[in-house]
Amino acid sequence: MDRRTFLAALGALAVGAWRRPAPRLPFQPELNLAGRYPFSLPDLPYPYEALEPAIDAATMKVHHQGHHAGYVNNLNRALEALPEWQSESLEGLLTKLDKLPAAQRTAIRNNGGGHWNHTFFWPLLAPKPQEPSPALQKRISDTFGSWTAFRGQLLDAGMRVFGSGWVWIVKTPNDQLQITTTPNQDNPLMPYAEVQGTPVLGIDVWEHAYYLKYQNRRAEYLAAVWQILNWQKVEQLLG
Ligand SMILES: [Fe+2]
């Protein structure tokens, strides 16, 4: 190799190093729900009473104006101290929780998770009962055995969450559908999740989601939520 060829090769190497892409995350979240800092409480896509009798207006109001708003405020407070992270999307923050400074990590995990999860949840509930399309029923049945078996597996998983948490259907990086659960306000975008992937359905099983109407009867709440799930939205998220 003469000197000119050597220098050209060296230059190409340098350009290659400069252009080397950032390490890939385990998956790329396909959602951008909540914008960026400062985050704000989104309006519900329906009035507080729209989901009655499955979910009463009083529960919806305190859930949205009390719990969800609290997560938004606490998330913004945690990010005040981190200007270098303020331009990240919420999905970016949640997928990179393990890179955040330890002092703010738990607050962003809990409150960023809380904001994302509720922003995701509200449009998955429909004021008018919906039939899943034949295409969605087939895709679900192919994965879980049958539509009835899927209902059973989903609601059982919701019942098995100990304490507060969420039950999800996730599209994994290899395009498989899977039911999974997370504790507290964790979700499948987070590096700590047992199953990582893009959620296409999430159901809140915190007591604050049902206690006013159902007290400790989570099974009744889950059966009522099943009746008002927005299958069109699920199908849209499945892509
Ligand atoms: Fe909630």
Number of helices, where a helix is a run of at least 4 consecutive DSSP H or I residues = 9
Instruction: Tell how many strands the DSSP assignment holds.
Output: 3
Low-pLDDT ranges? 5-25
Strand percent estimate:
5-15%
The assigned structural class equals mainly alpha
Radius of gyration: 21 Å
The residue fraction in helices comes out at 40-55%
Distinct bound molecules = fe (ii) ion
Calculate the terminal CA-CA distance, rounded to whole Å: 52 Å
State the CATH superfamily name of the largest domain: Iron/manganese superoxide dismutase, C-terminal domain
Major beta-sheet overview: 3 strands, antiparallel
Describe the secondary structure blueprint for this structure.
Elements (H helix, E strand, L loop, with lengths): L2 H16 L38 H24 L9 H6 L6 H20 L12 H11 L2 H14 L4 E7 L5 E7 L14 E7 L6 H4 L3 H10 L3 H8 L1
Antiparallel strand pairs: 1-2, 1-3
Helix pairs in contact: 2-4, 5-6, 6-8
Bound molecules: fe (ii) ion.
Fe (ii) ion (FE2) binds next to helix 2.
